[in-house]
UniProtKB/TrEMBL annotation:
<keyword id="KW-0132">Cell division</keyword>
<comment type="pathway">
    <text>Cell wall biogenesis; peptidoglycan biosynthesis.</text>
</comment>
<keyword id="KW-0131">Cell cycle</keyword>
<keyword id="KW-0808">Transferase</keyword>
<feature type="binding site">
    <location>
        <begin position="22"/>
        <end position="23"/>
    </location>
    <ligand>
        <name>phosphoenolpyruvate</name>
    </ligand>
</feature>
<keyword id="KW-0573">Peptidoglycan synthesis</keyword>
<comment type="function">
    <text>Cell wall formation. Adds enolpyruvyl to UDP-N-acetylglucosamine.</text>
</comment>
<dbReference type="InterPro" id="IPR036968">
    <property type="entry name" value="Enolpyruvate_Tfrase_sf"/>
</dbReference>
<dbReference type="InterPro" id="IPR013792">
    <property type="entry name" value="RNA3'P_cycl/enolpyr_Trfase_a/b"/>
</dbReference>
<feature type="modified residue" description="2-(S-cysteinyl)pyruvic acid O-phosphothioketal">
    <location>
        <position position="117"/>
    </location>
</feature>
<feature type="binding site">
    <location>
        <position position="306"/>
    </location>
    <ligand>
        <name>UDP-N-acetyl-alpha-D-glucosamine</name>
    </ligand>
</feature>
<keyword id="KW-0133">Cell shape</keyword>
<dbReference type="InterPro" id="IPR050068">
    <property type="entry name" value="MurA_subfamily"/>
</dbReference>
<feature type="binding site">
    <location>
        <position position="93"/>
    </location>
    <ligand>
        <name>UDP-N-acetyl-alpha-D-glucosamine</name>
    </ligand>
</feature>
<dbReference type="Pfam" id="PF00275">
    <property type="entry name" value="EPSP_synthase"/>
</dbReference>
<dbReference type="GO" id="GO:0008760">
    <property type="term" value="F:UDP-N-acetylglucosamine 1-carboxyvinyltransferase activity"/>
</dbReference>
<dbReference type="InterPro" id="IPR001986">
    <property type="entry name" value="Enolpyruvate_Tfrase_dom"/>
</dbReference>
Amino acid sequence: MEQIIVKGGNRLRGSVRVEGAKNAVLPVITASMLASEGQSVITDVPVLADVYTINDVLRYMNADVEFNDQTIHVDASQELLTEAPFEYVRKMRASVLVLGPLLARYGHANVAMPGGCAIGSRPIDLHLKGFEAMGAHVEVGNGYVELQAEGRLQGAKIYLDMPSVGATENIMMAAVLAKGKTVIENSAKEPEIVDLANFLNKMGAKVVGAGTETIRIEGVEKLHGAEHNIIPDRVESGTFMIASAITGGNILIQNAESDHLRSVISKLEEMGVTIFDEDGGIRVIGPDKMLSTDIKTLPYPGFPTDMQSQMMALMLNAYGTSVFTETVFENRFMHVEEFRRMNAKMKIEGRSVVIEGPTKLQGAKVAATDLRAAAALILAGLNAEGHTRITELKHLDRGYVDLTGKLAGLGADIERVDENGEKVYQQPAGGTVSYLID
Ligand SMILES: CC(=O)N[C@H]1[C@@H](OP(=O)(O)OP(=O)(O)OC[C@H]2O[C@@H](n3ccc(=O)[nH]c3=O)[C@H](O)[C@@H]2O)O[C@H](CO)[C@@H](O)[C@@H]1O
Ligand SMILES: C=C(OP(=O)(O)O)C(=O)O
């Protein structure tokens, strides 16, 4: 079993470039299935396990997908299968994002239910409610969801009970080929929604209002392939911001977009971190003394749940009591137990965690419980006495490209080793990119 070994204490310095966003590229790849003519070319694609998974789902459905040099070519102009079996969907929840495109193009989709995961039950009822409003018949049984429409979908007015990112994306992708106008109210406003809308519009769709709470879509007869460059990953950017803050470092995070990180920047500044835009990126300088704060996760533009565990690692270092309240997912505190192994003083109270700081963290053997928890444990390790060993790296590889190599490049004492203790230099996602640690 591979593990990452971090020895705390080094101040990080230098610059690092963030990748294209995982949560933007996954829906863009599924949207490329909507093109009945031409090829789509997607650039600045992160070489991640999740990207390999979604590519395999598309290939299973008969699309031609090539992935080289952070660029994906998709040709979906031939007839596609309208099914996605459990073997594929279980690896990654975002596979449900094939539902909207398949339903829009073929009036049919039969896809395994994604099920729950370590951060909560994560139902897809809002996606299905949207499809039904557009005229699809929905049947759920034997672990599958089957959608069937008579002819073309019909544009509809859809109000989302909560601004679900996935439901907004799926309904948007279904609506672009529907007859007439669709209005999605209380839609998610995340930058990844805007990125998807931009890609759809390049394909010939008519989507307006993405990034606001009302999205309007005028259905068109057909769509064609398009070229698209993926927006920078705001969660990877935020993770490096905390790496700098937690080590009292000074890092330039290139390609990071501060407009997408307002809530994170504002909280870090409150804690004493210095942050400013510089040369197409963000410079982050850690303070000598970190101050405590309270945070509540919320849909965008609120504080992102995907930054909750990393920020908690930083709060362990702050003077005073911090309270972190999670409102987006009902069970995203699994990492708290792992932090406690490192001597953290924290207590779960309902949907909040109370953190007493500062704690002199001690290196320990810990297991990643989900993707962002993996990053958070590494961050805590950067600030702990002695060695921290992090296992269950499959979670990390879903969403971070060579985090070990990048942190080592910034001066961290960190390495990834296999079961024989041999250094591992390449992402196990198995891409064409390898990052050398000197
Ligand atoms: C691939 C991707 O982009 N993943 C992101 C996406 O996940 P995802 O799209 O799954 O997250 P949602 O915004 O849909 O989920 C938010 C909340 O709504 C609930 N819900 C959602 C849909 C539904 O039909 N019914 C329902 O009750 C969920 O259980 C959760 O409590 O947004 C999350 C919230 O910012 C992020 O943490 C994930 O990293
Ligand atoms: C929860 C996440 O992703 P997913 O929705 O793919 O599980 C994440 O990116 O932190």
